Amino acid sequence: MGVWLVFLAAPVNDLLHTERGTAATVLGALGLAAFVACYLTLVFRYTSKAPDRRAVGVSFTLQLTLAVVLALGFGAHWLGLFVYVSVSVGAVAPPRHAAWGIPAVTAVMALTGLGADSPPGLVGNLAVLDVLVGFAMTGVRQLVRTTIQLREARATVAQLAANEERLRLARDLHDLLGHSLSLITLKSELAGRMLPDHPETAAKQVADIEQVGRQALVDVREAVSGYRRRTLAGELAGARTVLTAAGIEADLPPAAPETLPDEEGEAALAWALREAVTNVVRHSGARRCTVAFTVRRTLAGPRLELRVEDDGRGGAGAAGNGLTGLAERVAAVGGELDAGAAGRRGFRLAARVPLSGTAVGFPS
After folding, report:
1. Angle, vertex CA 239, rays to CA 234 and CA 243, nearest 5
2. Count of helix runs (H) and strand runs (E) in the chain
3. To which CATH superfamily is domain 232-354 assigned?
4. Residue 354, pLDDT score
5. SS3 of residue 361 by DSSP
6. What is residue 347's DSSP assignment?
7. What confidence score (pLDDT) does residue 352 get?
8. Model's pTM, two decimal places?
């Protein structure tokens, strides 16, 4: 929106080089400063949020009035101010109001130009420019607000996902521990009553309590392990955040594949994605990183392939500890890992793990 300030060149040049009295020059400069202040207030404050109708109405009325007065008082060089008025209408007014507001501003500009004895060709060119720029700004306004809503929606989805995962863990722990702790309490009370008269039976109850406690501990560990399991969806979100923070263009799929391997296979691919993105950020000096998933049909059955490529310095040196450990992790689930230079520039990592079933496709 600040690019439209280029149209100030004509009125500023007119103020500096046209012979007028000191009072007229000062008034023109003050009027121009007030006009620009109204313009900047409107477009930078209200383009991305719902406007205050009273404040917008006052600012717009003052802006339009200044454009008319300055153009009539100082001549055709000041007609370019109406471009700012059209930009303000397109950037701030709702679409249904902008649809008639922009042509209305253009009509006022044409009448003002005729009243200031401006060349018809100049008035016609500015009329076309006012309409085009004004309606272009309605699209920019919609794009800005849509982008803001998208960011808010992503933040909400992330928060809901985190809350859902917390609820899942809470449900799991409640179901696991509720039964076990109730049983421990009952057996403890029973052992306490039996202890004076039947110590052997009480000892058996204590042994049962120990067994239930051990099983509860195993169940809790399994629940927490599942809660902390690496997933492709989580690693994709983390990779996008890390690459963006590092200033690397991230070409990633919007979501994980619809068909995934078993938990161990998905965890292996998630670790592969994490290690590959970490290497891109730390060592590659890349400007772009691409992540893709593909189903490969092989004689051994369908496999899901993760491919990560960058356009950095590449390399064909010996594998480090990270890649060696990653290859072992992928091999443990029956997959394979390939890594090496990608063409003349860049580095490529491909990990493939077996799919338990037939793939049905991926989200576009």
Report:
1. 160
2. 10, 5
3. Histidine kinase-like ATPase, C-terminal domain (3.30.565.10)
4. 92
5. coil
6. E
7. 92
8. 0.45
